[in-house]
Amino acid sequence: MKEFTETRNPAVLLEEINSLRALPRSHRRTVWFPLAVFGLVDLVGSPIALLIGRDHLGSFMLPATVSGGILSALHYRRSDSRTGAQTAIWPWIVVIALASLAGMVCSAEGREIGSRTLNLLGPSLAHIFGFTVLALWAQSTLLVALTGALVCVSVLCITLSDGDTAISAELLAFGLLMAGASLLQRRRIQEHE
Predict the structure, then answer these.
(1) Is 39 part of a structural domain of the chain?
(2) CB-hemisphere CA count at 13 Å for 137?
(3) How many CB atoms sit inside 10 A of residue 81's CB?
(4) Is the pTM of this model over 0.85?
(5) d(CA 34, CA 91)
(6) pLDDT digits (tens, 9 = 90+) for 75-104
(7) Top-confidence residue, 11 or 60
(8) Considering the domain boundaries, does residue 82 fall inside one?
(9) Is the residue at 12 inside a domain?
(10) Is residue 170 part of a domain?
(11) Contact 124, 148 (CB under 8 A)
């Protein structure tokens, strides 16, 4: 049996390998869809916080956040089949679960020990924790900038308002920031296509 060997330029092979390595990294940075979904969750959650109160907001936020995670996973699966890239979904699921748990624990603990600040920062700490982890995983400067903006908004909201109004204002601002970041990234992607 004759063995077939093809001689290829090593520089071309190295370039092909590097472009294949860059594909998953660039694909991870494409977070416009989850930002839009979670921005919508927060925008809808804002008036709900006023209607049912921040202490009962988990009954809306937890299922809405899990649904957002599932929609994002389905989006990435569809996109993966189209591009050939493989996006790991498990980081999203782990972060959603841990961030949701952190938000509920912080709010409940703040209420329990009488800490207004901790009680009001619970939901925003969940967002900030989640986006920090995802920013590191995705190596996304957009998510780093968004996380910084969320911190500023949180401090501003609990300084200027209180109770359900503060949570509602945070969710409204978070939703608008995420929607804006989603549109910005989507526009960047379209410009490079």
Answers:
(1) yes
(2) 19
(3) 9
(4) no
(5) 13
(6) 888 877 776 666 667 777 777 778 878 877
(7) 60
(8) yes
(9) no
(10) yes
(11) no
